[in-house]
Predict the structure.
Amino acid sequence: MELPIFYVYGTGAVPYREEHLGICMELSLLAPTQYSNYNFDAMCKFGDVYLGCNELGVFSLDGDTDSNIHIDAFFELSLTDFGVPNQKRIRKVYLGYEASGSLVLEVKDDDNNVRRFTITAALDNQRQHGVRVPVGRDGKGRYWAFRLENVEGCDFSVDSMDALITVLSRKSGKTMTNVGRMRLPSLTIRPGIING
């Protein structure tokens, strides 16, 4: 007696849990980095390999994609008044960086007026260089926030971020003085690995 060939096909999915939040501390700078959507209970660096562990096993955190999906990365700087209590305008942002693709800079004032600018890497070989992003005159506020994000999962590293601000007088709202370039904190972002 001959039995028929039996085929079984199936698919499965691991439930996604948003409650995981990873925090890495760069001890020499006391600089924390937050990782969201990392479904890991523990992480470590073993030799030159970063590992993440959960109830399903141990996973190597390498590569440019997560299951063929681009890895989104961004950083947001906290609100700043640049140490000046007056209303001000951001005229330009200067960025010292390297990237393997395009980035998006978001500039937001304290009235939640948001401007987004796409920055295309000027060098093909992902070397360090700088760019000036003209922001314009149409927004003003005391407090400003900055966000930089990658496009299509590109790697990027930021060395410096400066803003050219114009301080307005308290009464008339007219230009009081051009303060010049103000330094924002240095950061390094590398999607897909823990930068510790």
Q: What stands out?
A: The radius of gyration is 22 Å.
